[in-house]
Design goal:
Length: 232
């Protein structure tokens, strides 16, 4: 498990981080075995941004645990209205981001965290989507990507909505797959940067996320993409 000290501007409860880590690990043994594809695509040094699809309240907790890294989660403000989930997220130092307006305070917090060398997890879709259905990307993600200049690591989750359905309070038995793509660098957004088209960047990131399962399945047919995977 990767360890990282709290930054000067961001505090995380070590106790709740430790508790959450082992709780998810334990539940995965009984309810949702996890297979990770492309773990080697995670940068070995420096901070970066994980951009993932969003299917379940389980998603933010699962990503950090199964990728063995400590992230700062950027979650929609609605999650914080759930008394239990909101409490845990606050103890883990998550940043609440509003969807219906430009949330300047949250954006400032995000850039302070990135400046301090921490990595973040955000969800371009903003809200949970059903199954593999593609949703419109939040342009705020494009803004963060362009302004930060950090690598964007696309991640696709499959099965979390079955392991913890939106209308359920407890886990169901269902396998989960996590696909980690190659990092996207700022050179891939040059056209959008010239026009400050944040929506275009967000759409490009979301498209890369949604194409990951197909890209990895091509590996079995002789594609050049890395095919290492691990079962947690």
């Amino acid at each position: 498990m990767q360890k990282r000290e709290n930054s000067k501007s961001h505090r995380v409860s070590p106790f709740y981080y430790w508790l959450g880590y082992w709780y998810i690990r334990l539940m995965s043994l009984f309810y949702f075995p996890v297979t990770v594809y492309g773990r080697e695509n995670l940068p070995l040094s420096g901070n970066y941004i994980i951009a993932s699809n969003h299917l379940s309240n389980l998603d933010p907790f699962l990503i950090g645990v199964m990728l063995n890294a400590k992230y700062v989660y950027v979650a929609k403000d609605g999650l914080f209205r759930n008394q239990f989930v909101g409490y845990i997220l606050s103890k883990l130092g998550a940043i609440s981001l509003k969807r219906d307006a430009s949330d300047h305070n949250a954006i400032k917090k995000i850039f302070r965290v990135l400046k301090d060398g921490l990595s973040i997890v955000l969800f371009p879709e903003g809200t949970r989507g059903a199954g593999d259905r593609e949703k419109k990307a939040n342009p705020g993600v494009g803004f963060i990507a362009l302004k930060s200049g950090l690598p964007i690591v696309p991640v696709f989750l499959r099965g979390t909505d079955r392991a913890l359905p939106p209308d359920k309070k407890w886990f169901r038995r269902h396998p989960i797959e996590i696909y980690v793509g190659r990092p996207l660098n700022e050179r891939e957004f040059e056209d959008a940067r010239a026009h400050k088209d944040y929506q275009l960047v967000a759409n490009q990131i979301l498209r890369q996320i949604n194409e990951l399962p197909l890209a990895f399945h091509r590996v079995s047919n002789g594609s050049s993409m890395n095919e290492n995977n691990s079962t947690q």
